[in-house]
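Q&A log
Question type: sequence-to-structure
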Amino acid sequence: METTMQYEVMSETGGVPVKHWTRGVPVEDAALRQLSNVAKLPFVHRWVAAMPDVHVGVGATVGSVIPTKGAIIPAAVGVDLGCGMMAVRTSLRATDLPDSLAPLRSAIEQAVPHGRTSGGRRQDRGAWGNPPAAVAEAWSGQLAARFEVITDKHPKITQSNNLSQLGTLGTGNHFIELCLDEADRVWVMLHSGSRGVGNRIGSYFIALAKEEMKRWFVSLPDANLAYFPEGTEHFSDYCEAVGWAQDFARVNRELMMAAVLRALRGTGALPAFEAGASAVNCHHNYVARERHYGADVWVTRKGAVRAGLDELGIIPGSMGTRSYIVRGKGNPESFCSCSHGAGRKMSRTEAKRRFTVEDHVEATKGIECRKDESVIDETPGAYKSIDDVMAAQADLVEVVHTLQQVVCVKG
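Response status: OK
Response body:
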């Protein structure tokens, strides 16, 4: 494995090195400063790994892997806890799809609440007014009791969209797609996380960590790198809450996938089909206990996917580019990780300033999706080249399937 040929090392950090898989991919100076700030923290294990989709985040960069001993940084884990991908291959072929894909997109949009939430009111597009039976059962059977334990200790977390957003998509870069692979087989792929309740948990504990730093007079290179030391009460509570949110995110994706498959079958536009022979469900914003280089550490993947030996993952492109089902090579240098997507190359504000609706229409030609000004910030030109990103991490993953979307539903 040619690990030494694929990454570069930033050693002038004032702390541990940063190994980054970014050859041929642009990286902002601000992102490099954030990586350097994280590397200064005394509990980082060995080094920080930067993936090729790395870009500026809050405190820590999106697209970074941070192994820590004896502490966790809540803002590095983020607020979209457990955000990730799910993909399922169906028995459908491209020739089974109707000439017009608009009815398929419409069916998906009707089956899965998406967009902003306005309090679960009757016409709310982003949440359930009255959750369907499958959602209510998943909540009561897998999530409700643990959530009550968490909120008994931290009542402010109760004030969140939880059950009302289970099985819903959200906004921003979250999506549901129908894709074709290299053999013209149809896949369903989606991207979402723990929704409002995950955001509430993340934001609550980030604020709590900042308060702790002030109380202990801890000086940090960035206030957003406030942390909980292992063994403290808040550390244990945070691990419990973030673990629950990651499970919420996984269940959320499973419920949406089931709803999409039901909706497609109900259109009458497709022949009978099977689904699930090949399926992947993976987080890319999360923290987990793992063993690396002889030590048990907490690995924070902020916009990164676990890519252990032979583990399957998903690396999506943008609305108009390819996505990939990948198999991990178990590269220890990256702490068995890879990128979580193409990565933004500009802010949403800059994308809206730079691109027009006409640009977006041209960039998404041949794809059944929204083509209006409300999704300009998600247009393909706002993202790095997925080809460059994949080339930069050839020693981290191998491509199993290449997917090209034909339908894309955005929040």
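Response note: Residues 233-266 form the longest helix (34 residues).
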